[in-house]
Description:
Blueprint: E1 2-6, H1 11-17, H2 20-27, E2 32-38, H3 42-46, E3 53-57, H4 59-62, H5 70-80, E4 84-90, H6 95-103, E5 105-115, E6 134-136, H7 144-156, E7 185-189, H8 201-213, E8 217-220, H9 225-238, E9 242-244, H10 250-257, E10 262-266, H11 269-276, E11 281-285, H12 290-293, E12 301-305, H13 314-324
Parallel strand pairs: 1-2, 1-4, 2-3, 4-5, 5-6, 7-8, 7-10, 8-9, 10-11, 11-12
Helix pairs in contact: 1-11, 8-9, 8-13
Amino acid sequence: MRVLIVRLSSLGDIVHAAAVLPDIAHAHPAARIDWVVEEAFVPLARCMQGIERIVPIALRRWRGDVLGSRDEIGAFWRELRRESYDAVIDLQGLAKSAAVARAARIEPGGFRYGLANRTDGSAYEPVARWAYGQAVRMPARIHVVDRSRQLVASALGHAVEAPPRVPWRAGEVAADDALWADPRAVLLVHGSAKPVKLIGARFWVELGQTLARRGAKVWLPWGNEVERDRADAIAAGIGEHAAVLPRLALDRLAAVLTRLHGAIGLDTGLTHMAATLGRPTVQLFVEDKAWRAAAYWEPKTAVLQQSEAAPPTVAQAIEAWERVA
């Protein structure tokens, strides 16, 4: 059996979706799995056991210059169609991912599968379902990991049995990154693309100072210039025990994360990475989303569901950290 997974972005969503890989490997040991993913997340996909071929796509970049990107777009379509599949499964449910699934070649008797409906809190475009030979209906209220696993199970005809597992294959720490692979360090994931998820800098400074007084080092990651400025300000407020991480490729970052003490962070990709890599992790939810995105199955993960009106306090975060760390 040859299977193509379409999950183009983003960081946390790809981490969650990767839980389908052990399910497929267990139920169909001879299956060969390919994955279409945005080019920025190719290093992340390389860290996942069970993917045979990664097909990079650059929709985010191509949108800015479609005519100038014609050769790259043509090369992508040729690479996508180089293989044919028994099952093409779109885990994303958007028009762009459905178009990719529709363009992929299928074997005689094969099908394209995708979501038949929107689930609570998720992005979904109803037009996508017309790209699939079989659209699978999901319960309205379902965890994002369970949704992907149930969709794949329905497509390939197996049961969802074991607890979810993200099949990380984090490599060795590169020599240039050895400074950051410190077992005393706690990653404070303070940034998010969604402003509603953010907690004020004062919280992170006080949290970092509390951790530092207990002998920890504090690392601050960032993903864009706004987050870099915030990380600089938080590190300065914490003092000499804090530092801003360089911007590392995701495979290098995964290797570093496996060596850290753990992470405390918002509902965002890096926090989900840390939790599923088995590091002690506290996940801080301000939106009402813990029920659909938290790493509930990880024994070293504590989840704090608060709100915009009453965000997590430093005392709550430290108490949760003590439970898992």
